[in-house]
Amino acid sequence: PPLLNLGDGPSGFTAYPGTGFGPRLAGKFLMCDFRGASGISGIRTFGFRPRGASFEVADPDKLVWSLLATDVEFGPDGAFYVSDWTEGWELTGRGRIYRFFDPDFRKESADVARLLGGDELLRANETQLVALLGHADRRIRQEAQFTLAERGKSSAEALQAVALNP
User: Fold this and answer.
1) pLDDT at position 150
2) Is the sign of the CA dihedral 105, 22, 108, 83 positive or negative?
3) pLDDT of residue 1
4) Distances from the Cα of 69 to the Cα of 36, 49, 89, angstroms
5) Contact in structure between 90 and 30 (CB atoms under 8 Å)
6) What was the pLDDT predicted at 154?
7) Can you give the three-state secondary structure of the chain, one letter per residue?
8) Which pLDDT belongs to residue 135?
9) What predicted TM-score, i.e. pTM, was given to this entire model?
10) Given Cys at both, which of 61, 90, 126, 137 links 19, Cβ 3.0 to 4.6 Å?
């Protein structure tokens, strides 16, 4: 069963990757709540916390409001991007894309963009890739894992050591 009716028109959904907005969005999901009118639509955030053998929604909030958000996604630059329908339910032939970022995390975001945007991860040695498995950004951890896995047997011991290390 649902944990909570959080929005009437969920359309876009993403998870905070771990960098770009610091603790403000840590452990949060972003959901576009499209209700047909900008004044009652926007982007909600929420997390989860354990409740017995299940979970409950934690800290629901309105992050960005008064726009007809249809999708939301985090870019490699640390910002999140939102597509906006502009008005109503009908096809208008118009739309907007908004970019939201936190200037306090520019350096962190630039480092993530550099790692995700080039071939640095592909060129990294095994020790560097293992270190990146602990990176704050989920996307970098995942790319490091995939790169190690693609190297096959030569990286199997390194992956096994990480998996067995509590």
Assistant:
1) 92
2) negative
3) 62
4) 10, 26, 12
5) no
6) 82
7) CCCCCCCCCEEEEEECCCCCCHHHHCCCEEEEECCCCHHHCEEEEEEEEEECCEEEEEEEEEEEECCCEEEEEECCCCCEEEEECCCCCCCCCCCEEEEECCHHHHHHHHHHHHHHHCCHHHHCCHHHHHHHCCCCCHHHHHHHHHHHHHCCHHHHHHHHHHHHCC
8) 95
9) 0.86
10) 137
State both tokens at 164: 């067995």
Kindly report the three-state secondary structure assignment for every residue of 4-42. CCCCCCEEEEEECCCCCCHHHHCCCEEEEECCCCHHHCE
Token pair listed for 17:
């990757």
Q: What is the dihedral of CA 112, 115, 118, 123, to 10 degrees?
A: 180
Residues recorded for the chain: 166
Please check whether residue 25 is in contact with residue 47, taking contact to mean a CB–CB distance below 8 angstroms.
no
Segments of the chain with pLDDT less than 70: 1-2
Amino acid identity of residue 125, one-letter, is: N
CA distances from residue 54 to 4, 16, 51 in whole angstroms, order as listed: 13, 22, 5
Give the pLDDT of residue 15.
Answer: 97
Number of Cβ within 10 Å of residue 94's Cβ equals 9
